[in-house]
Design a protein that fits this description.
This protein is α+β, with helices and mostly antiparallel strands. The chain folds into two domains: 128 residues, GAF domain (Beta-Lactamase); 234 residues, PPM-type phosphatase domain (Phosphatase 2c, domain 1, 4-Layer Sandwich), CATH 3.60.40.10. Helices cover 33% and strands 27% of the residues. The chain has eleven helices and 16 strands. A six-stranded antiparallel β-sheet has the order 6-7-16-15-12-13. The radius of gyration is 22 Å and the shape is globular. The termini are far apart. The model has no long low-confidence stretch (mean pLDDT 93). This is PP2C family protein-serine/threonine phosphatase.
Length: 380
């Protein structure tokens, strides 16, 4: 009598990087009352879920979107469908869709969740070695500038016991110089939002220099002042002051909620708490790379448990489509209030959609970035 393997993980590690969904499908059909398996991945705009194993099978509908948004398993007893979120370290990848032939029982349901978690982790590792999953996620061709920007991104969401974090870029397929970056180490979460000068591939190259200079400094143990100064020097040595990068650098103490900031330009921070929204008052310093040997100072503010910190680029707060008032004066606040009950992963999409509606069909003059952080609580 065959004994069911304890884990699908060993099979995933032995599989070619482009065949992970098929390995999981074979495992589930062999050992469980499962008739069909499909993996659906989110597109770049986070607005639709697309099949991988059989591209002709149905795309994600309301149930799949509910699973993706809630990050909880969803079952439809009438059709025998079971949906499981594919997520790793808070980064939402998609949904695993199973067609069951019988009630699997509670033990099997727990095992399905484990299989989905192992698949998501393997997908994250395999992403650099195959184009298969990226080809599903992009529904049209990216510009070269957008290709550079997507390669730079750390992910689209991140989470832990003490925080939830998400970011979104728009337009996904033709962005320019706006960008975000983050990293968590021990009790410190570093977040940067950038608005590179210019447009097209030149803006993307400028942002690439800035992001990698700050990462180089950060990974060498430098604080955010040293990160800003190294990046500023690198940009100035390359562009001699002709191009610069407006940047907001933040370092959050996840234990106590203290935030250190270097405000080097146009991205703005806001704090929302129980429906109240206030801007974070920071003294703006010179954008990175404007002058040689620029020096920066740290400013501080405090988060309280339950606070939501939002950072937006000038493509959001300063958008004036058709001569309308800047979006940040009223439209942004209204959009943020609608996100009060949404997790950061959903809130960033709500704000971006509201910004598109504000343009009323007009072509945006700039790309846009929003990053949303929920600091949950102090730990004992």
């Amino acid at each position: 009598m065959s004994v069911r393997p304890a884990s699908v993980g060993s099979f995933l590690r032995a599989a070619p990087p482009d065949r992970l969904p098929e390995v999981v499908a074979h495992h589930l059909r062999t050992w469980y009352p499962v008739d069909a398996v499909e993996m659906l991945l989110s597109d770049l705009t986070m607005s639709a879920l697309w099949p991988v194993i059989d591209p002709e099978s149905p795309a994600g509908g309301p149930l799949e979107q509910r699973c993706f948004g809630s990050q909880q398993p969803v079952s439809d007893n009438g059709s025998g469908k079971l949906l499981l979120p594919l997520t790793t370290w808070g980064d939402r990848l998609g949904v695993l869709r199973l067609q069951l032939t019988a009630d699997p029982g509670q033990d099997a349901l727990a095992e399905f969740v484990t299989v989905a978690d192992e698949l998501a982790l393997a997908m994250r590792a395999a992403d650099k070695d195959t184009d298969r999953y990226r080809q599903v996620a992009r529904r049209q061709r990216l510009t070269m500038a957008a290709e550079l920007q997507w390669e730079l991104l750390p992910g689209r969401s991140l989470g832990g016991e003490r925080f939830r974090l998400a970011g979104q870029l728009d337009p996904a397929y033709a962005m320019y110089g706006d960008h975000y970056d983050w990293s968590v180490t021990d009790d410190r979460l570093t977040i940067t939002v950038l608005n590179g000068d210019g447009d097209g591939i030149e803006a993307a190259l400028l942002t690439t220099v800035a992001v990698n200079a700050m990462r180089n400094a950060r990974r060498s143990g430098a604080n955010i002042v040293e990160q800003a100064e190294l990046a500023s020097d690198a940009i100035y040595s390359r562009y001699a002051g002709q191009s610069h990068v407006a940047t907001l650098l933040l370092e959050v103490d996840l234990t106590g909620g203290a935030v250190e900031a270097v405000d080097a330009g146009s991205p703005r921070a806001l704090i929302a708490h129980e429906g109240d929204i206030r801007g974070v008052s920071l003294e703006q310093q010179l954008p990175l790379g404007m002058f040689g040997d620029s020096r920066y100072e740290i400013q501080k503010f405090q988060l309280e448990p339950g606070d939501r910190l939002l950072v937006v680029s000038d493509g959001v707060h300063a958008a004036t489509p058709g001569g309308r008032p800047p979006y940040g004066e009223a439209g942004l606040l209204n959009a943020l209030r609608r996100t009060r009950l949404q997790p950061p992963t959903e809130a960033v999409g709500t704000v971006i959609r509201a910004l598109r509606d504000y343009h009323a069909g007009a072509e945006p003059a700039d790309d846009a970035v929003i990053v949303c952080l929920d600091w949950l609580r102090r730990t004992a």
